[in-house]
């Protein structure tokens, strides 16, 4: 036992030394939205996020308002403008509601900025120290695909609710959480022929390595196709698949996204749970809508994936998909877009050993998306 632990420590130390950008996890995801108050209510009520911090007129902030919500390790920030013009307004005008910031938790935000900018990152925010009675936070930021940015957050000297400038949000209304644990991966959609550019960005600028790649033969139906590569940081805590459209007979979901989002952006966040049946039952009860596959999917799925711990019946009833790789299996399901524009959606995932992304479900899933596109007239 002791030997195992020692060798693991050595392994971790080695990867840490070579890693010029050690990432501790996702710190928060910030969406720019048209009406943060009502979005916050949606994520609380339907998704079971808990209110933790607030910044706005009552805290002395005059230009924008932000609500911070949390469920286990997942932290969402919802921001709306309070004035007619400004960067948040422009973002919403161009993209509709969407993810602006994928913030990464680091030990040293200044070094993270220097190391990435030195390797070619375009600066978004110079290292900035913010302070209040609860301590100090250092943040810095760089641009990534589209108008999305990464902010590095160093919070080891901070004890407050979220960041300086925010106050704890004591709301009498709370909802039961829905068993969502952490962000498993976050997917970016980029334009034609841009996938490799952005994968190289994550490799060169942020020191990520490529885990897997899928080409249009892996991910195509009779009508549409896309390509995807998965980039991961050194300790595997951050995984960013990058998709680009591929030629098909009809318009792929990635093109539809790019058209409506007006460029590259975050397509989906995969949220992990330890009990997908309970989580998805809870979400459906509270009105979250999921994509469904034909019930024939379940006639043959066990031939493909073998034995699983769960009964098939509840999975079939909820529309949960199953896939297996060399290391185990996974259960997953995808929501319909959660915004008016057919852009961002969520995945709920439960991993039972498998470290992959559900390749065996791509075809059934993309056919389900095509049925939705057909209804929107965007196929
Ligand atoms: Fe995913």
Question: Your description of this structure?
Answer:
The protein is of the alpha+beta class. The chain contains ten helices and 17 strands. The strands form two sheets. The chain has a nine-stranded mixed β-sheet with strand order 6-7-8-5-1-4-3-2-9. An eight-stranded mixed β-sheet has the order 11-12-13-10-14-17-16-15. It is globular, with a radius of gyration of 21 Å. Bound molecules: fe (ii) ion (FE2). Fe (ii) ion binds next to strand 10 and strand 14.
Strand segment tally: 17
* Rg: 21 Å
In what range is the share of β-strand residues? Answer: 25-35%
Point out poorly predicted stretches: 1-16
Average pLDDT rating: 92
Label the overall shape: globular
| Separate helix tally | 10
Bound molecules: fe (ii) ion
Helical percentage: 25-40%
- By helix and strand content, what is the structural category? alpha+beta
The first-to-last residue Cα distance is: 55 Å
SSE series: HEHEEEHEHEEEEEHEEEHEHHHEEEH
Strand order of the largest sheet: 6-7-8-5-1-4-3-2-9
Main β-sheet: number of strands, strand sense, barrel status?
A: 9 strands, mixed
Defining traits:
379 residues; alpha+beta; nine-stranded mixed sheet; eight-stranded mixed sheet; 17 strands; binds fe (ii) ion
